Amino acid sequence: QGRMWVYTVGFTVLPHVGSFFGWFINRKEIPVWYEKLKKPSWCPPRRIFPVAWTVLYTGMGYASYLIWNDLGGCSSKAIVPLGLYGAQLALNWAWPLFFFGAHNLKMALIDILCLDGLVIGTMCSWYRINKIATLLMVPYLGWLAMATCLTIRIWKDNPEQKPGKSE
What counts of helices (H) and strands (E) characterise the chain? Predict the structure, then answer.
C-alpha cells in the first residue's frame, strides 16, 4: 500500500516516454519539412501541441492506472482493457514516425484512423470498470478527432512526391 505511488507515477509517466522518443527522433523535421506543408487555416499553432499532449498523456496515463488498480493489477480481467490501451498507445507513438519521420502522410492517416477505433474500444472496455478513467479519455478523443481531420486535410492538400521528383 505504501508503494502505490510508484505505480501511479509509472502509469502516468509511461505515455510521455514514447512521445519524448518520437519528438527526439523527429525534432529536426518539424521546423523544416512540416512548416512547408500546406495546412488548413484552423490548424493549431505549433506551440499548442506540446502543451496539449502533456495534458492528454498525463490524463490517459493516470486513467490507465485507475483501470489497472481497479482490476487488481495484471490479472486476466485486465488483458482486454489494458491490451486495447497498450495497442492504442503504440499507434499513438507510431504516428509521428510515419508523419514526421517517413513523411508518409497516407500511413499516418491509416495509423490515426486505426488509433481512433482503438481509443473508442478502450473507452468502451473501461466504462463498466471505472467511469472516471473513461471520462479522463474524453479530451484525448476530442483532440484525436481534430488531429484526424487535420491529418486528412494535410494528406489531401499535399500530394506525395513521386520518386525522382524534387521538392
Answer: 7, 0
